[in-house]
Amino acid sequence: MHFAVIDLYTQQAIGTLALMRIDATNGVAEIGYVTFSSQLQRTTAATEAQFLLLQYLFDTLNYRRCEWKCDHLNHRSRRAAERLGFQLEGIFRQAMVYKQRNRDTAWFAIIDHDWPAIRTAIAHWLSADNFTSDGQQKQSLSRFKASAGIE
């Protein structure tokens, strides 16, 4: 299930992300195929796009688990997962062959038990009160996560 990220000012698509490996019976889905343009990468809007997808998954669909998998060498993706509150569950060694090399896959997840604290932390971080008039954050997401008891 693919989603486009639209810049509300320009009405242009600036990214995509998807729910994949959807298992409705068990309430599990994976976030993947995340492709953000340079306009979207490392922005508040990027965090908001991920947050909205997580809200849809947990609060609307009432799923129990959201997974995030990436090449263990993809440090940007791993940092993004951790920043959003996903917990590393392990490294699946030689999970696939990719570009003629063995790829180890880092496997992350948020479960429904974790979601309320993560939702609160990200919502507080995204709040307009947390940003100056020129868009600079006043407090980091890690500070809000720590206040919510998230490692």
Helix and strand arrangement:
Elements: E1 2-6, E2 13-23, E3 28-36, H1 44-60, E4 65-71, H2 75-83, E5 87-98, E6 101-111, H3 115-126, H4 141-147
Parallel strand pairs: 3-4
Antiparallel strand pairs: 1-2, 2-3, 4-6, 5-6
Helix pairs in contact: 1-3, 3-4
Fill in the keyword field for this structure.
alpha+beta, single chain, 151 residues
Can you put this structure into words, describing what you see?
With 151 residues, the chain is α+β, with helices and mostly antiparallel strands. The chain has one domain (41-147): Gcn5-related N-acetyltransferase (GNAT) (Aminopeptidase, 3-Layer(aba) Sandwich), CATH 3.40.630.30. It has four helices and six strands. It has helices at residues 44-60, 75-83, 115-126, 141-147, and strands at 2-6, 13-23, 28-36, 65-71, 87-98, 101-111. Strands 1-2-3-4-6-5 form a six-stranded mixed beta sheet, with helices on one face. The longest helix has 17 residues, at 44-60. The two termini are 30 Å apart.
Short description:
With 151 residues, the chain is an alpha+beta fold.
Q: How far do the termini sit from each other?
A: 30 Å
As a percent range, the share of strand residues is: 35-45%
Count the DSSP helices: 4
The description of the largest β-sheet is: 6 strands, mixed
Q: Record the strand order, biggest sheet.
A: 1-2-3-4-6-5
Helix/strand order: EEEHEHEEHH
Tally of structural domains: 1
